[in-house]
Amino acid sequence: MVTLACRIIGAEHFDVIWLHNNKEIKPSKDFQYTNEANIYKLQIVEIFPEDAGTYTCEAFNDVGESFSTCTINVLVPGEEPKQPVITKFPSSVTIQEGERCQFICETQEEPLKLTWLKDGKPINESSTKYSFIKDGNRYTLVIKNCSIDDGGQYQVKAIGKKNETSSAFSVNFD
């Protein structure tokens, strides 16, 4: 069993849904929604290769929405893991306007290319708003002075000779 958990604070009335690769997961015996106080969980009873991908916890009400995104990779015994292998995944954050934030991704071996995306589009690497740091197989994205426009869903994509691997995360504001 795999359990994803999301702590939601700051609102009294809201609905919560979970998504897999941007499609809503309907609660069932295989995918169970639970919550205790302000912790909302998705329990995946049995994990299969097709369950790999991006998972999002989305909380919404009449005022707006907030979400947290993560990636699940499923390793199958006896099969080679998808290359390139990400060994450190960037984490979602909740920040305040004007703050600096950074996201770190490490890979087992150097990919042919590594790309950072926001809301599905590559981030402009020539923009002065961002810093891109490479130190061996460690890649860092820095957002220097976060504004509301920086909120959204992000992804880092490591491209190898035959495959690509990605990891999703999100930026929310207090």
TrEMBL record:
<feature type="domain" description="Ig-like">
    <location>
        <begin position="1"/>
        <end position="73"/>
    </location>
</feature>
<keyword id="KW-0393">Immunoglobulin domain</keyword>
<dbReference type="InterPro" id="IPR036179">
    <property type="entry name" value="Ig-like_dom_sf"/>
</dbReference>
<dbReference type="InterPro" id="IPR003598">
    <property type="entry name" value="Ig_sub2"/>
</dbReference>
<dbReference type="InterPro" id="IPR013098">
    <property type="entry name" value="Ig_I-set"/>
</dbReference>
<feature type="domain" description="Ig-like">
    <location>
        <begin position="84"/>
        <end position="172"/>
    </location>
</feature>
<protein>
    <submittedName>
        <fullName>(Mediterranean fruit fly) hypothetical protein</fullName>
    </submittedName>
</protein>
<keyword id="KW-1015">Disulfide bond</keyword>
<dbReference type="InterPro" id="IPR003599">
    <property type="entry name" value="Ig_sub"/>
</dbReference>
<dbReference type="InterPro" id="IPR007110">
    <property type="entry name" value="Ig-like_dom"/>
</dbReference>
<dbReference type="Pfam" id="PF07679">
    <property type="entry name" value="I-set"/>
</dbReference>
<dbReference type="InterPro" id="IPR013783">
    <property type="entry name" value="Ig-like_fold"/>
</dbReference>
